[in-house]
Fold:
Amino acid sequence: MCSDIAIKVENLGKCYAIYEQPRDRLKQFLLPRLNKLLNKQSKKYYREFWALNNVSFEVKKGETLGIIGRNGSGKSTLLQLICGTLTPTRGGVVTHGRIAALLELGSGFNPEFTGRENVYLNGVILGLSRTEIDSRLDDIIQFADIGEFVDQPVKTYSSGMVVRLAFAVIAHVNADILVIDEALAVGDAFFTQKCMRFLRSFMQQGTVIFVSHDTASVRSLCNKAIWIDQGKFIDIGTPKAVCERYLEAFFESIQGSSGTIEKKTKPELSILQTIKDQRQDFINASNFRNDIRLFQFNPDALSFGKKEAEIIEVNFLDTENHPLSWIVGGEQVVLRIRAVAYVAMQSIIMGFYIKDRLGQILFGDNTCLNYIDNPQSCFENNEITAEFRFQMPRLSAGDYSVCPAIAHGSQHEHIHQHWVHDALMFRSESTSIATGLIGLPMTSILLKIKS
Structure:
């Protein structure tokens, strides 16, 4: 195996025998052997279920791979095959380095043992010696932060405490490959942040395989993603691209395939004749100002939906409704989204996300809650406009995009008519934020010193 490859999966498959009745299992065990002695042909008393079929990919050392897919798609089966807790029916997995895995909740723990005893048990399973565990025990207990429960049986633990202890162990085994299967979802916010800090530190030199239903986490943490559905390999690529295709397929499975827009007469787009550069309103021209350059709405951007309505324009305005070509971070702006409905619709919802270059959602909103007591409807060929007024956060230097959408229904159950990826791009040319993804303008900052 190439020296820079940490994991190689080739034509991997896992098949289970599904028996309709318990007696069929006994028939399958006995009758083929009997028929073989009698030179008779045997039949199968089970049906095959391929939890995973013909999956191939490679993960390089230092990469973080995200795996996405719906429930029952084969993600957990794939992880167990990589970790060696399952034997493949066909194909194979080659790994290079020590693997530490956090799979099913409490896997590798004996519920009758105390937390301390399970640290030793789990450490041995992960390849540590007794001496190595002794030297790391205090750090493991401190990381888990479960107090005196460490000397109580694990069967008395809450699910969050089990995850704390399991993660604390794998965080101290000096693994080369870390495998995590959505277990962090049951941790509290403080522990999750502690785990994220560890993960980001580990990613600087180690290899990570991360399974999650949260596509935002996959986009944020991973530099490559694969999509598995019904045991089959669907897609591989950048997290942003794979997550967008997965999201489109998810909505289409609920509401049907995306429609094709029949080109009808649309309202004319507003012509940006009086462009106002908002920077001119500021006397202070220091290097700390957050200048954000806006590009034009892209009507051909990748999109999906039923397409009985279409987003036709997205732009930013100042508070006096002048279209903008630049924004200064921290100032009031209006995001205007225009659409046209090709059929009559009820309970219209329009909204947006602001995403960074990795597809990570920074913020967004929609019209649903504002009109929950007064749902808005339209007739065929009506134009619909939504305006969102907010204070533009200060942004780190880099590229960003607006993802607008129009739907109809309720907040929890709705039909997407047109969801546009990266409809309007913009670039933060300079920034003043000290840390984090975005900077919020401070109403006051005080520093007091007493003698």
In short: The radius of gyration is 27 Å. The mean pLDDT is 86.
